[in-house]
Amino acid sequence: QVELVESGGGLVQPGGSLRLSCAASGFTLDDYDIGWFRQAPGKEREGVSCVSSRDGRTYYEDSVKGRFTISRDNAKNTVYLQMNSLKTEDTAVYYCTAAMGYDCSGYGSDESYWGQGTQVTVSS
Asked: How far apart are CA 10 and CA 48, in angstroms?
């Protein structure tokens, strides 16, 4: 059974840091692009970041560039999202997603696998 399980969410103050983890089971990440979407209340789900299967190239939504870092550990079948300099507008449920591919073009597509999400709240 294919499953993605997110962890690491929580409550942090503005300017703080948090690391999200996504552990995959039922498949290996070697041939999959994997990354993160997020959804805030009243807003549609938006892409945050993705790391490709081919060469580890990373992609970021403009609002998180320079603050977030995505990485993958194929040996652990896990992807991480290091979130620094967090802002209140980063508050959302963060979802891990994976799709077979090589350049993140299919990340978040209808053919993707999805996790259940983890809540990130940035507030003073």
From this structure: 18
